[in-house]
Amino acid sequence: MTKKQRREAAARRRREHQQGREQRPGRRPLLLPPRDERCVSCTTFNILAPIYKRMDSENCRESQYRAYWFSRNEKIIDRLLADCSSIICLQEVWLGNDELVDMYEKRLGDANYSLFKLARTNNRGDGLLTAVHKNYFHVLNYRELLFNDFGDRVAQLLHVESAMPFCQNRSSSCVQQQSLIVNTHLLFPHDHSLSIVRLKQVYKILQYIEAYQEEHKLGPMPIILCGDWNGSKRGQVYKFLRSQGFVSSYDTAHQYSDSEEDAHKWVSHRNHRGNICGVDFIWLLNPNKSRKPLKTSWNEAVFGIIKYLLLQVASLSEENAFALLKADSPDDHISYSSFCQALCQLGMVHPDRLNSEEIKDLWSEADHDGDGVVDYKEFQRCIWSPTCCSQEEEEDTEIDISDGSLVTFEANDEAFGFTVKEAVLFPPEVEKGMWPENYSLSDHAPLTVVFSPVRMPCSPRTPRTP
């Protein structure tokens, strides 16, 4: 079969699939019209492992009733197959149950997906599953990241290449776009001090991506981070990723800002405490986005957490917070020892949280003039009013896909990225900030985003963080 015949066959399959979707009542179309063959889609969904799903009794779990968990997971797979995303990133898959794993492997495998599973460490029972549709992507490499920290969290990294070359027209050269995809599930913040653990998990992911790109001498390419981030737009993880140039695909599609007002426009989770919040994200970083050094963003985010603990949790004013940090120092400044003591009081010093080297880095940042102490002005600049962590949205510059390749790139050259064409949460009520009582697939809403490839100029890459 020629390339042209393969493209025509793919277009025919998409037309048939779209027609079938439109005939089902109550379904909202997720994919763009099938004639736009360049589009790809991604779904992230925490499917709520049966070992965690509470039944009527607090001590009773769905895992004790095969008929319940089997039926619910069949419905989840039905929905995933109906949406037919190019990439599916699932969290809380009950990998400890062979029958459930076989169900996903068989049905998604029969639908032409390649599956990658990764269990959480220390036999927690659940884990991640990423499925890549062979019609859309070839998997060039797969890596597993074990955080080995509190909560036994993990992440998957997939280096993929488009199965279908992107061509602007018949006379132009065609290019197979490469991307990096991450699937993860961050720690739930059972108490405020665990915010630093979640931030550290994201930091490890970005460090790992940098190391992978350097190891394989990769040119600029889009990076997509999917998963349950267990934190909303108001948290430091969100601000940290924004400072690194990532955009929330759902917010981009709906033109929502980082403002407090827009933080409540949508939700994706009702947690075990009964609270509803937006915690499921598909983050996109394009090659044209400028990025701060990773260590700079990390320091800013940690200082943001310190301020939150001082202000919101300890209910301290600016002056009282400074007094806590300087402890018993007779002079009007913070010493290194009193700084460490205050971090201990805030629950931030632990091998899984901040270690001695990281505390020294924070201290070096706070001690701006290097005189060995932090005075009130330095406290205000670095801790109480740290540099803004978010970065302004930039317009993606679309360039015709015509010629060139992705072999080598220098600063100011061109690469391929993605524009966000559509983003949908299900059920529709969550897009209005409400949680429907009759929704039973999970305690999370699946998020699906449609991307379209575009050519764009590259921003110079920042040096790798050691």
UniProtKB/TrEMBL annotation:
Q: Which GO molecular-function terms appear in the entry?
A: 3'-5'-RNA exonuclease activity; calcium ion binding
Q: Where is the composition biased (Basic and acidic residues)?
A: 7-25
Q: What would be one Pfam family of this protein?
A: Exo_endo_phos
Q: Tell me the ranges covered by the EF-hand domain, including all copies.
A: 354-389
Q: Which UniProt keywords apply?
A: Calcium
For the region Disordered, give the residue spans: 1-32
Record PROSITE patterns: EF_HAND_1 (PS00018), EF_HAND_2 (PS50222)
UniProt xrefs under PANTHER family: CARBON CATABOLITE REPRESSOR PROTEIN 4, FAMILY PROTEIN, PUTATIVE, EXPRESSED-RELATED
Name of the protein in question: EF-hand domain-containing protein
The record lists the organism as: Oryza brachyantha (malo sina)
